[in-house]
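Predict the 3D structure for this chain.
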Amino acid sequence: MSSSAVPASRIRWRRGRVTATGRSGRDSLELTVDVPGDGEVRALAYRSLVGSPEIGDDVLLNTTALAQGLGTGGTALVIAVPDRLPPDPEGTGHLVKARYTPLQVSVQGVDEQDTEHHALMVDADDLGGMPVVVADLHSALPAVLIGMLATDPDLKVAYVMTDGGALPAAFSRTLDALAPSLAGVVTVGQAWGGDLEAVTLHTGLLAARHVLQADLAVVTQGPGNLGTGTPWGFSGVAAGEACNAVTVLGGDPIGALRISDADPRPRHRGVSHHSLTSFGRVALGGVTLVAPRGLSSELGGQVDEDLAGQPKRNPVVWVDTDGLDTALGLSPVPLSTMGRGYPEERAYFLAAAAAGRFAALRVPVPGDEEATPEEAEAERDAVDADPQT
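Done. Predicted structure below.
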């Protein structure tokens, strides 16, 4: 190809006119846009990037994911409102995320010099044993949180969102609905839009503990998941690296297993190969793997069989799920993973809730480092290291 040739665009550009506005989220606005040749399409504008489009505005759209029919990303994204640009950014934040892309954005990081939290973050070096539940998919978040708060409604829970899926926290409707139940959202790496921004997962976890004063944290990627059907080609590999970060910082890593008896793909039936790989081969510091008591017998012993090959550094515990089915049925957000809801994917959501319950039971009682005999007995009753087949 000659140097003067124009390469084909990797973005499917379209122009359109806003015909209706819809739901408004933490930093998002849903739109209906009339696109010549395509008709009316659903679109999403991030107001901190492009302003707030109004009916009648002409907009530039990225329709790449929409054209591919992606389940999570199947919407057009507003790139600009060219006739009404938003005001220039204000403030001192100098963390740049989505770096060196046309939509790179500057935010103030909890760990940078000009923030009120810098001195605290300079000294922060340990999670103090804080339990951290790590899950492969964003869809596990509400179920994990339900398991935690159904066990102890007074716990403060922080969510740390990594950059394996969607980068803007505003893309998640789940976070809008869960906000009253969370101590805060920390977006790390290239993810942005949380209550706090952090450079790395490590500083994000430390911010959850020391700035948000959380008792517990949940780590998942943002909405969306990239998989290729190959052993290592999936974004959830980062779940294992997250466990390593928790270990390095003196936290208590707990793995929420991805379990399914409804997924049509054999590699995700029983315990998904994503969980077996990320926790079993990437989490070198070890992680406690949690399964709902009795689930293995419901699935014909498959969970036992799948977990039998886990290394010794990954203990498997079986947790009572009394009351969790009821709590999941009352979820403040629709429970859905890969287009399937609850109870169709009961095993998946119950496993996530069980991980949340186990984490809640691991939180130390304030001012009492050693559990009373009654508390110890209650925890033994709720948690069993032996498979329940």
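The longest strand covers residues 13-24.
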